[in-house]
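Changelog note: in this version the structure field was regenerated for every chain. One regenerated record is shown below for reference.
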Amino acid sequence: MSEQRTLALIDDLLQRPAETSWVEFKENNADAQLIGKLISALSNAARLADQPFAYVLWGVRDGDHAAVGTTFMPSSQLQQGQPLDLWLAQRLQPAIAFNFELVDYHGIRLVMLEIPAAASSPVEFERQAFVRIGSATPRLSDHPERLKALWAKLQSYAWETGIAAQFLSGDEVLARLDYAAYFDLTGQPLPDNRQGIFDKLIADHLVQADVGGQWNIANLGAILFAKRLGDFSPSIARKAIRFVAYGGLSRADTVTHRQDGQKGYAIGFTGLVDFIDGLMPRNEFIGKAFREERPLYPAIAIRELVANALIHQDMTITGAGPLVEMFSDRLEITNPGQPLVQPERFLDFPPRSRNEALASLMRRMRLCEEQGTGIDKVFVAVELHQLPPPDFRVEGDAVRAVLYAPRRFADMTPQERVRACYQHAALKYVTGQRMKNASLSERLGIDSQNAAQASVVIRQALKAGLIRPADPAHPRAGYVPFWA
């Protein structure tokens, strides 16, 4: 935290008419047990009050909030032979990044403790959660109504609401964010005054008011509309989407093209998709009268899979962002984070996203399909182009989607044929139809005189438990996916 912001923050805290549930004033009381309970209580209270941080300020008289100075020295205080901050950290669950700061406040020595609001679960000290009620610090379990309210707040808390940049002037905010693109993509007229611009940015949770008349840029605002992601912390900058093209089948082959994203997702998305499309090999297609070149992969499939990687990634995994890799025979799109839905159920399950605000705003900007239709469109496009079935798989702490270049049925592996059969049955089912031998033959490009080949694939998919007869009593009724 900058010295200027620290002083502005203390001014703001001291001007409050009374202590709040997330602010505590002390003079010299440095009891370690008390501080531990306060960290738990204030962290939980800050989340209840929708505050990103809570504060304890030493050197302030409780009655009139006058700055009188303190003798408390957290950096030199020991508790059971350990430094105070280490002793506290070992007794707090989950771990939170609290921070003591020595402050020269107009010549008066103060100590400020900054406490992040609870993010994933109630913060406990020595296996007990506390909360702030008035000037009291009771156990949270003794107040079930507050515990219930806290869990409701925690469930809706998301990475998007975090702070990407703090204590900026209005000019600095507008210099870092492409606000004109925001208005253009959301279909809103650009206001003719600064207040109108900030009102809209606040309404979409892209920026927040800070102390001292300054501003914060939220993670959501930075990741979508940053002119340069590198202007923000590494946790934001490393979320830039990367593209790498290889000259062969593996990552050991020569890198022919590389592009590291510099812009926020919203303003860089279309350019990235166009860049990939421009590098993509073309196949010659001969129609009834003309020859034409078609891209190796359907544009809608690439667009949807890239959008899904952006929306569904786990933003809390640091040092990793979405990655698009092009090989001579396939396109791989990887995003960090375990899936919230098993890959084989991507088509039929209602979509779940860790980043609801990000997903909602990208849909408003028409950068991705309406909720629940993106994967459908990928499967439809792949079948229309008679490509091998896409593969969705979990690899470590990441999800990888793979699009394969055109290949004849004879060149597909047995696993690919069975996967194509399952995906075809699922796509038919969600559109109110049933897979049959004839429809699978068409999907796989099998000539009618070789329909027995489709029957073999169906038997293999049945054996694998991926499909089942729609009506066992009527074999010609077709097949449905195992979950139908």
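Spot check on this record: The chain has four domains: 3-156, 161-236, 242-404, 409-481. The mean pLDDT is 91.
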